[in-house]
Amino acid sequence: MESKRKLIFVCGGSDCIKSGSKTLRKKIREEIKSKELRGQCKLIKTKCMDYCKSAPVVIIGEFVCKKATIENVLHQIKKS
Ligand code: FES
Prior knowledge:
4-stranded mixed sheet; 3 helices
């Protein structure tokens, strides 16, 4: 059975951490707990995904969000 929840992978590798992925992950977590997105997404922390030059990196479904910000991550979550 296929999960209906959107999977959001946030890199927790050292380059992404230096570029603020920890803060970004906290913001995403807060947003997906909000009324609008509650129960629709699952947040997963990953190891380095080999896109270090574009840190921080977030993958939403099949979309790779490079130099991710909370705005473009939310835009992509709502779009997908
Ligand atoms: S540290 Fe995030 S892609 Fe390498």
